[in-house]
Write a structure and sequence with these properties.
This protein is an all-alpha fold and 193 residues long. It contains ten helices and no strands. It is globular, with a radius of gyration of 17 Å. InterPro entries: DedA_domain, VTT_dom.
């Protein structure tokens, strides 16, 4: 099934209404769809580099709006919708422990999930379920998704096809290492001074 969804997503990159498809995929990926919008963004930007910034903006806005749907699922329908989504991703065991500490690290959790390959939908649902302040969630989502989508767009716009493999295989790792170093730096500053 996942392979079929992936193939459909790639085919949609050539569709005349690709921006609308990207908006839809970005929206639903933030709450339940398993395929990230980058899969659509990459071929769209390579085909039309002059639209790189528009493509990134569509992905950003749609993703944050979809994140609000995920937040609402967590806040208002966790047991009916949110919990089954998280269980299908194998995240059910850690939900109770995670929820007790989530809001202490809410900014970092949303930032990390918004930038790295960690499923953003998990954090959107958990943010609503744990009652993270909505403005913190929205602001951090805009920051994280903006960094991710505009960096991908910028790299493709500047370097084109040669950077594609790096983005598809290593960018998630680079983002993850960046977040680890950033959090480690804040930890050292806080505890060394």
């Amino acid at each position: 099934m996942l392979k079929g969804l992936y193939d459909w997503t790639i085919r949609m990159a050539d569709h005349p209404r690709a921006l609308w498809v990207l908006a839809g995929v970005s929206f639903i990926e933030s709450s339940f769809f398993p395929i990230p919008p980058d899969i659509l963004m990459i071929p769209m930007i390579l085909a039309r580099p002059s639209r790189a910034w528009l493509i990134a903006l569509v992905a950003l806005v749609s993703s944050v709006l979809g994140g609000l749907l995920g937040y609402a699922i967590g806040a208002f329908a966790f047991e009916q919708i949110g919990q089954p989504i998280l269980e299908s991703m194998g995240k059910a065991d850690s939900m109770a422990e995670f929820s007790t500490r989530f809001n202490d690290f809410g900014f970092w959790a949303v930032l990390t999930a918004g930038i790295t390959p960690f499923p953003y939908k998990v954090i959107t649902i958990m943010s609503g379920w744990t009652g993270m302040p909505l403005m913190t969630f929205v602001a951090t989502s805009i920051l994280a998704r903006g960094i991710r989508f505009f960096l991908v767009a910028g790299l493709l716009w500047k370097f084109g096809e040669p950077i594609r493999e790096f983005i598809e295989k290593r960018l998630g790792l680079m983002f993850t290492l960046f977040i680890i170093l950033l959090i480690g730096g804040f930890y050292l500053v806080r505890h060394m001074g």
